[in-house]
Write a structure and sequence with these properties.
By secondary structure, the protein is mainly β. It is built from two helices and 15 strands. It has a single domain, classed as Thaumatin. The strands form three sheets. It has a seven-stranded mixed β-sheet, with no helix packed on it. Strands 1-5-2-15-9-10 form a six-stranded mixed β-sheet, with no helix packed on it. A hairpin with a 5-residue loop joins β7 and β8. It is globular and about 50 Å long. Keywords: Signal.
Length: about 250
């Protein structure tokens, strides 16, 4: 007891004589977010487990960039009432993980905070990919790591096609695409739906391409890629064309 008291008094005397040193914790550095993406939207992407921000290239790189000087231009407009983040990815041949945003970074992540806000993305020919949205900073990833919302899917070049896919989440936000030729794909027209009232699907034989009749929808096309599962969408923009994409509307 006596020895302990002496040690405590010695420590107290040392503390009184020693200068005060303020401890400042080292905070993790937040990487600068890319142009066109707000900090809040970037933070939401991190919170839901996305692998990273989009490249958001400004200036013609011949592939995918923010601008209106490419052979294919997609103008995305927020038609809803909530802040919207456009997420666009490519799908290189053989990369089966390209749409899984928990392991792949998108090519574009762009904030459209207000209704009426828009951005034009240019794409070269011969590119396949897709897009979706994070709405109101509430949209999450699916259990597999894909954006749990309505998708748009596209191929540019010789077989240019665009469609709306509801297979990841049949209850997703509204999406509508009009090709310059007049062809329309939206939530009910020339779009992929799950069969049997399922909310999500994707396995062989579980989905349909609905209301994609060229007789009533110019340049619509429908077929099968394996004799069982449908393929198709809006065509008529071979090796160059323009799409008007309305986000958050039927």
């Amino acid at each position: 007891m006596f020895r302990t008291t002496l040690v405590s008094l010695a420590l107290a005397a040392f503390a009184a004589a020693a200068p005060l040193v303020k401890y400042t914790p080292t905070l993790p550095q937040i990487p600068p977010h890319v142009g066109g993406l707000s900090f809040d939207d970037c933070q939401h992407m991190a919170n839901i487990g996305m692998a990273g921000m989009g490249d958001n290239v400004f200036g013609n790189n011949g592939y995918i960039w923010v601008g209106n000087d490419g052979p294919n231009t997609f103008t995305f407009t927020n038609r809803g009432s909530a802040p919207t983040t456009l997420i666009l990815w490519d799908n290189p041949q053989g990369d089966y993980e390209s749409s899984f945003m928990n392991v792949r970074r998108p090519k574009v992540s762009y904030s459209l905070p207000n209704s009426g806000d828009s951005v034009t993305i240019s794409l070269g020919n011969g590119i396949s990919g897709g897009w979706s949205t994070l709405t109101g900073r509430a949209t999450t990833l699916s259990r597999w790591g894909q954006i749990y919302n309505t998708w748009g899917e596209f191929t540019t070049g010789d077989w240019a096609t665009v469609d709306v896919s509801r297979l990841v989440n049949m209850r997703g936000d509204g999406l509508s695409v009009r090709v310059a030729t007049g062809c329309l794909t939206n939530m009910d027209t020339c779009s992929f739906h799950c069969k049997n009232n399922a909310n999500e699907c994707g396995e062989s034989g579980t989905y349909d391409l609905v209301n994609c009749d060229p007789a009533t929808n110019p340049f619509a096309a429908v077929g099968t890629w394996d004799g069982i599962n449908p393929e198709g969408g809006c065509q008529g923009w071979t090796n160059g064309g323009h799409l008007d994409v309305s986000l958050g509307t039927w």
